[in-house]
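Example S7 (structure tokens).
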């Protein structure tokens, strides 16, 4: 809107004093009388001076002045439109809280409510490719499945492994799930939304949700008609009298919860309408949070490059080229030097902004070369697979985030002990950081497992046998040694034998016992 028009850098307008000076100097330089005054008698001067050609209306000085005015206006940053701050798409986090109470095994939606919810999670990840997401599972307690990450494959691995049997405590504590998700977004520090995927909400959760700072979107899973609840043994859940229980979608409870807190609510659809609805609300929530935190305006100054270029094209006339070239040479010292770039628009982009553009294109090598910010340079190097270089970049800073990213890079390099130390350092600077706590636990578990396996397989090569006998004629039995590669394969197979589902079940049980999900 025209009422919002203003300049981002109004102090540039002080340079508008320069064009009148240029015109004045050009006017004096073109006055031939001044050159000969004092040398020729005044009554003879008028007869000796040849009058200039008045048909030339546009003189070089006017072109120079107009170019200077446009450059100054472009540098002042004219704007009238708001925009999201840089990196907002990466900061727009989504925490998906999945209800894993027994009713989610109802088969009113084929193959079950939970399996259908998993498919929707995959669709959400595909629609938000490159954005940060997390998974929380809850029933009688709430637990972290995957911390906020851009790794969609990691999220899919664990979301596909979700099952109602992994929850250590029965029930449905929606308040605990919301509180856990809200703390996760607070620790992340950026705008975000909580997606609640459930078939019902207890009445006590409505009051607790009023204390939640984050935006919440509710997606109902199931049908009003309901369905039988299938159990792991193939049977169906029954009540006290032996009759089969029919679990129904408690739509009234969902709407009551949403109306009390002002949260949007919807139910599953057979197409992607529900996915588009979720993405739209997530985007709206991010925009509103950004507006609450402060406005950012779109710099439209680069549009003035086109009339500047047009004026320079018209200036290439006999007698003008040298003057315009001198102008460009002088402006190089008078005005701030723009960032060198291949394209014309890149003249107005800082190295970090150019790095951001390369990062969005997926050109992480180029992004790392452009970024001056050590954190974003390190992230680009990390995404490019240059983990050691990423560590060197993160090491410049002493923040919780830099230590956490160093730990992730060390983890990829297989340096588990150093990674665990870095995770601990990150937790010292940000206590109870959920992602750091979870990753530290994984690193320590793998490190301990590695040490246990090494101690089991370690043998003393200097121990001498009592006697050595060779049996060249006897029948050859099975080889008594295993090659190193085969030993390594066996070690990996042992790790694979524990499925993500079983791993989560053990983790959640430990967290319930220790009281720290």
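Recovered sequence:
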């Amino acid at each position: 809107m025209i009422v919002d028009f203003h300049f981002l850098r109004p102090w540039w307008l002080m340079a508008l004093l320069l064009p009148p000076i240029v015109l004045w100097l050009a006017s004096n330089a073109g006055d031939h009388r001044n050159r000969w005054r004092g040398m020729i008698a005044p009554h003879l001067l008028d007869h000796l001076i040849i009058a200039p050609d008045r048909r030339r209306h546009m003189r070089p000085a006017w072109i120079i002045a107009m170019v200077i005015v446009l450059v100054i206006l472009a540098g002042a940053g004219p704007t009238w439109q708001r925009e999201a701050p840089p990196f907002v798409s990466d900061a727009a986090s989504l925490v998906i809280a999945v209800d894993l109470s027994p009713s989610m095994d109802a088969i009113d939606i084929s193959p079950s409510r939970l399996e259908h919810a998993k498919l929707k999670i995959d669709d959400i990840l595909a629609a938000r490719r490159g954005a940060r997401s997390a998974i929380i599972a809850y029933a009688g307690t709430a637990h972290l499945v995957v911390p906020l990450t851009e790794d969609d494959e990691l999220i899919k691995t664990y979301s596909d492994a979700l099952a109602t049997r992994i929850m250590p405590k029965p029930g449905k504590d929606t308040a605990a799930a919301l509180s856990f998700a809200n703390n996760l977004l607070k620790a992340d520090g950026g705008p975000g939304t909580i997606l609640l995927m459930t078939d019902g909400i207890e009445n006590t959760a409505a009051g607790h949700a009023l204390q939640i700072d984050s935006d919440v979107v509710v997606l109902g899973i199931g049908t009003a008609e309901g369905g039988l609840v299938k159990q792991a043994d193939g049977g169906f859940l029954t009540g006290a009298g032996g009759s089969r229980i029919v679990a129904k979608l408690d739509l009234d409870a969902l709407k009551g919860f949403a109306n009390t807190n002002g949260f949007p609510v919807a139910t599953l659809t057979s197409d992607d309408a529900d996915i588009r609805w979720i993405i739209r609300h997530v985007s709206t929530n991010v925009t509103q949070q950004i507006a609450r935190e402060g406005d950012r305006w779109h710099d439209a100054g680069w549009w003035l490059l086109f009339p500047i270029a047009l004026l320079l094209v018209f200036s290439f006339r006999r007698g003008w080229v040298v003057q315009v070239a001198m102008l460009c040479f002088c402006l190089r010292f008078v005005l701030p030097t723009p960032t060198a770039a291949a394209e014309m628009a890149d003249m107005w982009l800082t190295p970090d902004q150019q790095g951001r553009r390369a990062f969005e294109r997926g050109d992480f090598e180029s992004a790392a070369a452009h970024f001056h910010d050590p954190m974003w340079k390190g992230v680009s190097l990390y995404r490019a697979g240059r983990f050691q270089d990423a560590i060197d970049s993160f090491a410049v800073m002493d923040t919780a985030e830099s230590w956490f990213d160093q730990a992730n890079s060390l983890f990829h390099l297989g340096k588990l002990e150093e990674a665990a130390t870095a995770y601990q350092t990150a937790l010292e600077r940000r206590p109870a950081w959920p992602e750091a706590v979870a990753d530290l636990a994984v690193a320590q578990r793998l490190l301990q497992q590695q040490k246990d396996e090494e101690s089991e397989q370690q043998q003393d090569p200097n121990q001498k046998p009592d006697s050595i006998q060779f049996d060249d004629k006897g029948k050859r039995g099975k080889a008594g040694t295993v090659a190193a590669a085969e030993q390594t394969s066996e070690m990996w197979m042992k790790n694979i034998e524990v499925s993500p589902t079983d791993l989560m079940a053990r983790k959640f049980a430990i967290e319930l016992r220790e009281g720290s999900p």
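Notes on this example. Strands lie at 6-7, 78-79, 93-99, 133-138, 142-149, 192-198, 215-220, 227-228, 246-247, 265-267.
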